[in-house]
Amino acid sequence: MSTHNGVAAAPDFSQYGRALTVAGLDTRPVALLDLNKFHSNATVMSTRASGTEIRVASKSIRVRGALEAALAEPGYSGVLAFTLPEALWLAESGIRDIVVAYPTADREALRQLLHSEACEHVTVMLDSTEHLEILRDVARSANVPAGARFRVCLDIDASYAPARHRAGTLATKLKVGPARSPITTVEQAVTMVHACERAGVSLVGIMMYEGQVAGVSDGARTPRGLAVRALQALSKRDIAQWRAEVVAAVRELVDLEFVNGGGTGSIESTSAEAAVTEVAAGSGFYGPELFQHYRGFRPAPSLHLLFDVVRRPAPDTVTVLGGGWIASGPPGKDRLPVPVWPEGLRYAPSEGPGEVQTPLTGPAAAGLSVGDPVFFRHAKAGEPLERLNSVLVYSDGEIVDEWPTYRGEGKAFL
Q: What digits encode the pLDDT tens for the residues 223-257?
């Protein structure tokens, strides 16, 4: 089971294989979700949050059944969606309190939002007057129902920028973190609050995502790993001070419903801040490969991808059909899926993972036959499910259900 600082118990791949055989499920590729480990991860993350509510990041889930299972766990409330059409669809299915994590320029979806009941519980993201202009234009042209107003959340930069506190502005090029919001000072945040008032939208929340802490693994025993840990320690202190300043300034002008921050990798530090009312988490439910290299929390890998061996080009090499589902982010070895079972498989150095076929070598290759499954773990959580129509749900030794992915329900939001 998952622990705060230890490595989670290894998946029992042979047991997974037996369950698939008993169920007569031999179609590949396929995703298998270990529901027991999924729930265990949820419990550990909630404990890490120490009473702060966790909003579930749907980008890292992309299976409605899994999303509903996560929301049913104690300590979880609300969804952090990744597109407005997705949020509208989830709202139609009965999910409430949805924040769209990224700004949108989808005018048709915005019109649909204004004319639906979802307008009362779906919040859209913005970080500039350009976004406000789009909202105003849509409202003017949409024959808005009486009382309908956009609920908006202000996305504010949460990168590591120590000069911000010395000069009130980014007076240096030292800035580490995701390239997200252009709002980098308290003055800019206050200006946007006033702009929201003039635009006639309801400002209900603030989002500040410190990706340099939440989304960067810190467990490598290398000079780079040492540098990452040092930078994250500095960044945690910096973001706590910066977030407290900007939230205090905004709360003097508007009554906020929520202040969202962090992610799976920063639950403890983010939830410890008094200014934060909720943290976001998604990847920690599935435990992808990137999160096996964190020091504070290594979730139990609960989502696995299976591909079939389809040929043997050499005595020490087998080839699986598919396998090359590369994760987004800066190109590098850590974005590759990892063959995890049977143990002792590695990529052929001259080819690597391929979209249609992937040669594998190593000690375990000699023992595999055509038709045998190879288990992979993806680098990131939700992305591989864009390629599959369903997830097989495993619990206590057997396949107990099959949940359609977003794609399996005919949805492709990104």
A: 766 767 777 777 788 899 999 999 999 999 999 99
Structure tokens at 9: 């118990």
Q: Which whole-number Å values give the CA distances from 290 to 247, 275, 293, 308, 333, in the listed order?
A: 31, 29, 6, 24, 11
Residue 9: how many other CB atoms lie within 10 Å: 13
Tokens of 2: 């998952």
Gap between the Cα atoms of 91 and 111, Å rounded? 15
pLDDT digits (tens, 9 = 90+) for 4-62: 444 456 788 999 999 999 999 888 999 999 999 999 999 999 999 999 999 999 999 99
For residue 99, the cross-strand partners are 80, 123
Token pair belonging to 209? 């995502």
Whole-number Å distance between alpha carbons of 265 and 267: 6
Type of residue at 10: A
| SS3 label, residue 322 | coil
- Cα(322)–Cα(338) distance, rounded to whole angstroms? 13
Q: Give the pairing of strands 303-314 and 373-377.
A: antiparallel
- Say how far apart CA 67 and CA 71 lie, in whole Å: 6
CB 330 within 8 A of CB 283: no
